[in-house]
Amino acid sequence: MSKAVIAVVGSAMIDLTAYATVIPAPGQTLEGDLFTTGFGGKGANQAVIAAHCGAEVHFVGKLGRDLFGDSIAENFKKLGIDSEYVERSDTPNGVAHIWVDANGENRIIIIPGANHEIESKKAIEAIESIAGLAVVVAQCEIKQEVTLAAFSAAKKRGCVTILNPAPYQPLSEELFAVTDWIIPNETEFKELLGQDPTSDEVLKKFRPGKNSIVTLGSEGAVLITSEGNLTRVSAPKVNPVDTTGAGDAFVGVFAFGLASGKNPEDAMKLGVKVASMSVTRKGAQSSYPSQAEIDTLS
Predict the structure, then answer these.
(1) How far apart (Å, rounded) are the C-alpha atoms in residues 1 and 91?
(2) What average pLDDT does this structure show over 284-288?
(3) Is 215 marked within a binding site?
(4) Does 278 carry a binding-site annotation?
(5) Is 70 a catalytic residue?
(6) Which portions of this protein are annotated as coiled-coil regions (predicted)?
(7) Alpha-carbon distance 146 to 152, whole Å?
(8) Does 258 count as an annotated binding residue?
């Protein structure tokens, strides 16, 4: 089988994570349990897990010309992620400040830094140039105009486009039009539609005529076809340690599944399994299973 070729147009950040039993209230200072630094950014997370699955991954983005940017570039190289379309900037690399409580739930503030300097023309050039490209993935940690440019170029090539609308921002009609799959979580779904994804009726109202998946955390995910048919996949029961990066794990694995010829339901099932495994470990990319582990889930 030919290799699944994926391009991720997106953010790459360093995660600065504090773990504490209880998250402080406003004005309160509490002692934490652990502090870690790790590789993150929604785009980079999705690229890394797709690479773990065995995909040929091309990353399109911008890193700071600093220690954090150097570390990310070296990590991409180690993982075999093609960085031909990764540029460098004098603006500091993006970072994410993350708090994780005893239940594994997180609160995150991102500072985009160099990620907001990705140029549309460079994204178009990348998408037009990558041989055998099947799937293009993006998120909302970069400027929406860049995603629109990349997806428009992707559709001209006949590629499948996947948008993870996180963190939430209002999306243009132009971007919706060139997005084949949109994958929000429950919070982003409510922001986009104005209602919680709690009933079949509400789910069927979301993007009629287009394919969507809503990730539901410990409840798994639901696929909404362009015809309005629903397919639910439940998640295996696990003890969550840290949910950071789990949604990205799902998106990256789903992209790999489509690019490698799986049907959407099977791609979704694998995505749920990998994401569920990731929440049992600390960190974002550091929590992702290896290719050998993923092979046992297929």
Answers:
(1) 41
(2) 94
(3) yes
(4) yes
(5) no
(6) none
(7) 10
(8) no
| Residue 212: C-alpha distances to residues 50, 93, 160, 166 (Å) | 19, 32, 13, 14
Q: How far apart are CA 201 and CA 208, in angstroms?
A: 12
- Please choose, from the candidates 96, 41, 107, the residue with its C-alpha nearest in 3D space to the C-alpha of residue 72: 41
Check whether 286 is labelled as a binding-site residue: no
CA distances from 274 to 118, 124, 149 (A): 29, 31, 30
Per annotation, catalytic residue among 70, 180, 248, 295: 248
Flag whether 70 is marked binding.
no
Residues in the chain: 298
Domains of the chain, CATH where assigned: 5-23+33-289 (3.40.1190.20)
Measuring CA to CA, which residue among 45, 5, 260, 261 is closest to residue 130?
A: 5
283 is in an annotated binding site: yes
Please state the rounded mean pLDDT for residues 185-197.
95
**pLDDT tens by residue, 115-145:** 999 999 999 999 999 999 999 999 999 999 9
Q: Which residues of 210-244 are buried (b: 16+ CB within 10 A; e: fewer)?
A: ebbbbbbbeebbbbbeeeeeeeebebeeeebbbbb
- The answer to whether 114 and 93 are in contact (CB under 8 A) is yes
Where is average pLDDT lowest: 131-135, 226-230, 240-244, 251-255? 240-244
Q: What is the pLDDT of residues 1-16, one digit of tens each?
A: 468 999 999 999 999 9
